[in-house]
Amino acid sequence: IPEVENNIDEVCDKIMQGRARGKKHSIVLLAEGAGDAKDISEQIEKITGITTRYSVLGYTQRGGTPSAYDRLIGSQMGAKAVELLCCENFNKVIGVKGNEIFYMDIEEALSMKRAFDRETYELTKILSI
Q1: Together in a domain, 79 and 35
Q2: pTM over 0.85
Q3: 41 and 79, same structural domain?
Q4: What is the pLDDT at residue 59?
Q5: Does residue 2 share a domain with residue 53?
Q6: How confident is the model at residue 66 (pLDDT cuts 50, 70, 90)?
Q7: Between the N and C ends of the chain, which has fewer C-beta atoms within 10 Å?
Q8: Which stretch of DSSP H or E encloses residue 58?
Q9: Same-domain status, 89 and 74
Q10: Are 58 and 23 contained in the same domain?
Q11: 98 and 74 in one domain?
Q12: Is 98 left (phi over 0), alpha (psi -120 to 50) or beta?
């Protein structure tokens, strides 16, 4: 992830530790903005000697069959967007917070700082062992 500097040697060490415990495969996830998948794949292969493959998911990761809730929220957000446009209320973003549809100025939304959840990040390191 871009919020944490990672060392490719540490990533490779973790892969090799898994191999030593009998794991035949590893999956390395790379967040958007954290580097180039092709370059990192090549580095891992060079360091470990393990054949690697990479895939850039893009919007594929957001796929899947929508639930009834997904469809309802999508419809409600669409209706709110039309309502705002009809009232000539432009340059807004629409979101969901606590099952409620809300909107705000796009500039405000873009300037918001998101807090990095270090606790969840550390949990992923434990779960990947």
Answers
A1: no
A2: no
A3: no
A4: 63
A5: yes
A6: confident
A7: C
A8: none
A9: yes
A10: yes
A11: yes
A12: left
